Each structure stands twice: as structure tokens, then as C-alpha cells.
Fold Uronyl 2-sulfotransferase.
Amino acid sequence: MKKKGGEPKDAGGGLARRGLPRCSVRDYGLCMASLLLFCLGSLFYQVNGGPPQLLLQLRSYLGNSTFLDDHGPPPPKILPFPSQVVYNRVGKCGSRTVVLLLRILSERHGFNLVTSDIHNKTRLTKNEQMELIRNISTAEQPYLFTRHVHFLNFTRFGVEQPVYINIIRDPVNRFLSNYFFRRFGDWRGEQNHMIRTPGMKEEERYLDINRCILENYPECSNPRLFYIIPYFCGQHPKCRDPGEWALERAKQNVNENFLLVGILEELEDVLLLLERFLPHYFKDVLSIYKNPEHRKLGNLTVTVKKTVPSPDAIHVLYQRMKYEYEFYYYIKEQFHLLKRKFGLKSNIKPLPRPEFLIPIPLETEEPIEDNEEQNDEKWLEDIYKR
Ligand SMILES: *[C@@H]1O[C@H](CO)[C@@H](O)[C@H](O)[C@H]1NC(C)=O
Ligand SMILES: *[C@@H]1O[C@H](CO)[C@@H](O)[C@H](O)[C@H]1NC(C)=O
Ligand SMILES: *[C@@H]1O[C@H](CO)[C@@H](O)[C@H](O)[C@H]1NC(C)=O
Ligand SMILES: *[C@@H]1O[C@H](CO)[C@@H](O)[C@H](O)[C@H]1NC(C)=O
Ligand SMILES: *[C@@H]1O[C@H](CO)[C@@H](O)[C@H](O)[C@H]1NC(C)=O
């Protein structure tokens, strides 16, 4: 008031010239009317020795009113916003990279990252399932639970089903990665494998991959090659039986329980979509991932002695992994559909088919992998012996 009064001449012209909004007569009227209302209210207040009924009612209305009363329920969110997320990470599919990112993210965004010390048990008895599910569901929300574990059906135990996320990769590449990792470790050094698989016999460690495949060693045959699908199918014994039933169950579970299943070959887009779907968990994940500091931390260079199996051997492997590939292609298609929906282009050059015949570079940059032995294969041998 003082200012305006002090410089009346300049104010009007100056304001207009700068294009600031000028008060219309209507605005002025409204302003005056509310002032009058206030004055009248104040007068009533003083005259009656207390607030008039009108003001009380008004206040009580305003006081009780919530956004919901005024506007009805908010429009349903286009993206779900869960506070219970499970990442039942598949081995050798970049999960160590993602867990490293999750550690950083959980501090930044303040969610509860629940990990497990058990790395070699993907299959649980009914009691173990119940205990684990109880444990998970009592974690402070928002939580993200992660472990190498086959899909758990929370509703079966009367607990609300969390939202699942996961990442898979080309099955033959996953298999090869695991094969050499078990034997020779990764960039953490050659000595590493002695700690990881001390019990492994020299004979097994230096087993030629072509022999393993072509001479039907258990490690290179079914049911051991049936690896990815059980993570999505679940704990039912039939889920580990390479076949149509498990495949269909896995697909159904993906549709009903998984918010996103990404493919490692397009990890940056996976992270981008996670950021969009679960911002409370994954906001800024891509910039953290791309940050050179973080890359240094990770040291993504793989130095394992990877040898490329012969085309014949890869072909055999591919045939043995028929269901795994059917599932992988299904996931890939869904992932690309989702990407298109969110306006992401596939910046991956279309590979000439068949993909599995493309030699795997000996020194590829790969995400850091689990420092974990996947020992949960005794049961596979049992099945194999039958
Ligand atoms: C507001 O709440 C008070 C007490 O909580 C209640 O008596 C009153 O009726 C409520 N008013 C409205 C408009 O809901
Ligand atoms: C459940 O939590 C308790 C206490 O944190 C822990 O001792 C137990 O091992 C957990 N069980 C499972 C199956 O994770
Ligand atoms: C989970 O369990 C419930 C209750 O037993 C059952 O109805 C449902 O089909 C199961 N879902 C899956 C994916 O196994
Ligand atoms: C990664 O580790 C290898 C072997 O320890 C080392 O030679 C290389 O410089 C490291 N790279 C980065 C980017 O830190
Ligand atoms: C898992 O690893 C632990 C040691 O890390 C071992 O004692 C246990 O027998 C393993 N379990 C299976 C199923 O291989």
C-alpha cells in the first residue's frame, strides 16, 4: 500500500509497459466484496461476543473438507505405485549390477532394501515358503526384496501379493556365462574361482564346453538347461519339468504378477522403464548407471576364459533350450511392446537370425555378476538320474 501510494504516477504507467496484469473492474469488485465480508464477519464477531454461526459453519466445512470430498476419488493412476516389490533375480542376468544400483538407490530414496544371505536355494518347501513370505511381508514398507528364488505365491498363504520385477537374457548366453563363471570366475581375478568352487575337480573345471554339450554331460543337458522358466513358473514341482505346462504357467505369472520383465541386452531401457514405473525406487537410476564413477566401481570388464562353442554345439544347445527360447522370445516381444508404448525406440540393430549363431565376443563388456555359487542343482541331478 505504502509503495503504491508513494509513487502513484510512475507505478501505473510502468506496470502497464512491463505488461503486468492490470486489475479489471470485476477483480476489483471481488476484492472489495471479500474485504466487506471480512469486515462484516469481524463486526458480527465483536457484536455477538463470539463467532457467528455462519463463520462456524464455514470453518467446520473447510476444516473437515478433504480433497476427496471436493473432487471425488482421484483419477486412477496410470502407473501403479506399489510399496511392496520383489525382484526374484535370475542368476547371470545382470542381477549384481542391479543390486549394486539398488544399494545406492535405497539410500537416496529411503526405501527398505531387503536382501538375503542365501544365494543357492531357489526352491523351498512349503514351510520355508510360508516363513519367507511372512518375513518379507512384515518388512517395513516401501520395501524391495531380492533373492535368487523361484516365484512365490503370496496369495496362497493369505498374504497380499507384491509386485514382481525381473530381468532375463538370451538363454544360450546366460548358460555360457554361468559355465565359464563357475570355472574361472570373472574380473575379480583368476584366484577367485578357487574360493568359489574349491570342490571342483580339475577334470570338471577344464572340461571342454563342446564335449560337455555333445557328449550329454548333465551340466549341459536338460533339466539343467531349464533354468529361467522356473523363476517365473513357481515352486510347484512341475515348474522344473522342461515342458509346455511350466512354460504356460510362467507366461501366465508374468502377465498377472510381474510389472516388468526386462531383457539384459537392453539394460538401459529396462532401467528407464523401471524409473517410470517405480519412481519411488528407481528415480535417477539411469544417470547413476551411466555415471563414470559408478562404472569404475563396477569394473565391467570380463576377463574369464570364454571360448565359443562350435556352431554344432550351439545348435544342439539351442534345441535343448526350446522352451527357454520360447519364453525368452515371448518376454522380448512384450518388452518391445512396452517400450513402444512409452515411446522408446529400439536402438538395438536387428540381428540377422538365427541369433545364436553369432559368435560371442571373447571380451564383451558385461554387467558385474553375482559373486554367488549356484549350487541348487543337486535336485536336478536327482531328476537326471531317474
Ligand atoms: C466436521 O466435523 C465435526 C466434528 O468432527 C462434525 O460435527 C461436523 O458435522 C463435520 N462437518 C462436516 C461438514 O462434515
Ligand atoms: C526370517 O527372519 C528372521 C529374523 O530376521 C531370520 O532369523 C530368519 O532366518 C528369516 N527366515 C527366512 C526364511 O528368511
Ligand atoms: C496362487 O495361489 C492361489 C490360492 O491357492 C491360487 O488361486 C492361484 O492360482 C495361485 N497362483 C499362481 C500363479 O500359482
Ligand atoms: C578393471 O580391472 C582390471 C583388472 O583388475 C584393471 O586392469 C582395469 O584397469 C580395471 N578397469 C577399470 C575401469 O577400473
Ligand atoms: C548353500 O551354500 C551353503 C554354504 O554357502 C551350503 O552349506 C549349503 O549346503 C548350500 N545349499 C545347497 C542346497 O547347495
